[in-house]
Amino acid sequence: MTLHDYAKTSFAGIRSNKSRSALTILGIVIGIAAIILIMSVGKGAENLILEEVRGLGSRTIIVEPGREPRGPSDFGEIFTNSLRSRDVEALRNPSYVQGLKELTPAVAGAVTVSYGSETKRTNFRGSTELIAKILELYPSEGSFFEEEDVKSLAPVAVIGADVKKELFGSSDAAGQKIKIEGRLFRVVGVLPSKGKASFIDIDDMVFIPYTTAQKYLLGINYFHAIIVQAETEKIVDRVARDIELTLRETHNISDPDKDDFHVMTQADMVKRIGTISKILSVLLISIAAISLVVGGIGIMNIMLVAVTERTQEIGLRKAVGATDKNILIQFLLEATFLTAIGGLAGVILGTALAFAAAVILSRTISLNWGFSFPVSAAFLGIGVAACIGLIFGLYPARRAALKNPIEALRHE
User: Fold this and answer.
1) Residue 87's CB: how many other CB atoms inside 10 A?
2) Which of 309, 269, 246 is nearest to 87 (CA)?
3) Within 13 Å and on the Cβ side, how many CA atoms surround 39?
4) Can you tell me whether residue 276 is helix, strand or coil?
5) 261-276 b/e (C-beta count within 10 Å ≥ 16 → b)
6) How many CB atoms lie within 10 A of CB 223?
7) Partners of 118 in beta bridges
8) Domain range enclosing 213
């Protein structure tokens, strides 16, 4: 028999029991669809996060308190109060850190903002004008606060478009006074609608001098982060290294494993995000792959049933000259075709679900969540499905091939 004859015979066997064939491959379809969906959504999330990280600029370095998280138990340490004014002064000293262009301490929190009878719960960022340069924040009304406002602990604020709309409606906000946690602040600038940038919802945000935030809103003398900008992209790694050495000196740390801070460049963040994304994808795909094994077992069971039902057919074929090899190949091809069809259907279903998920997520969280089709996963899915057909179809095919033709013809 030629390969064409084998394929024709195998398809005839599949078509003779369409409903059973469809139910047989259901586990394969679900497993492959799940893998496609997970990899597509995971890639979309990774691309979105990387885009947000790149929005900080390639010259930006972020220093955060606490040891760099390497596991779930380390995340509690990122809320320590290890970054203080002495660290900022040391970093500003050119003899310690060369190539540092600008830096700004940063604090953050949630506050209640009110104007007249209108009240809104929102988030704030305390920083300097540098944050406006990094995130490209250009007020449509008024201007951003300046260094003098930071030094004098001025009660001034720049508000996002949503905050302005909810508190002032269509009225002008620049120059007006609002209350933040009961304290009067003068609105010096209003930002145009910008959406999210680097994980910050600019529209639903209030920016104030970090010194003002520390004293009047938070009552703290430490920082939640220090944002640094290097003079050029080429010296970012060197500046980051100088920052680490300087902070170890100001914190009296000799063992790097005992750092109570961590320094991140854009490259570091991209690398960490990629690593986390891959780990999560492997974990989720491993879970989804269980359904492929279940589907393979289902195929083996159905093929065993098919061998029993078609015993007379097997006997007749052997009686007219079919060899054990012919019967083996035929049933193996049937199992392989079933799983390959299931894999193809799973890819189509998974792609449709992934596209729908991208559209829904884009509209739900108001972010540019792009659809990403994992080509490698599609080929891998179909290939794995076919392999499962070969592996789980081998035992039923062998049982069919070893049947005695005389006994098979007598079977009822």
Assistant:
1) 22
2) 246
3) 23
4) helix
5) bbbbbbebbeeebeee
6) 26
7) 115
8) 99-224
Q: Check whether residue 203 and residue 118 sit in a common domain.
A: yes
Helices 266-309 and 236-250: crossing angle in degrees, nearest 10, is: 110
Helix (H) or strand (E) segment spanning residue 118: strand 118-127
The bridge status of strand 100-115 relative to strand 225-230 is antiparallel
Residues 204 and 335 in one domain: no
* Whether 124 contacts 180, CB under 8 Å: yes
Q: Is residue 283 part of a domain?
A: yes
CA angle at residue 55 from 53 to 57, to 5 degrees?
Answer: 95
What domain count does the chain have? 2
- Relative orientation angle of helices 375-401 and 324-365, to the nearest 10 degrees: 150
Instruction: Find out whether 245 and 236 touch, Cβ atoms under 8 Å.
Output: no
pLDDT in tens, 136-188: 788 999 999 999 999 999 999 999 999 999 999 888 899 999 999 999 999 99
Is residue 299 located within the same domain as residue 196? no
Q: Are 296 and 387 in contact (CB under 8 A)?
A: no
Q: How far is CA 51 from CA 20, 44, 197, in A?
A: 47, 11, 9
Is residue 94 a contact partner of residue 197, using CB atoms and an 8 Å limit? no
Boundary (domain end) residue, out of 161, 192, 224 = 224
Angle, helices 375-401 vs 26-54, to 10°: value is 160
Q: Which two tokens stand for residue 326?
A: 């012919």
The pLDDT tens digits of the residues spanning 26-60 come to 777 888 888 888 888 877 777 777 666 665 667 88
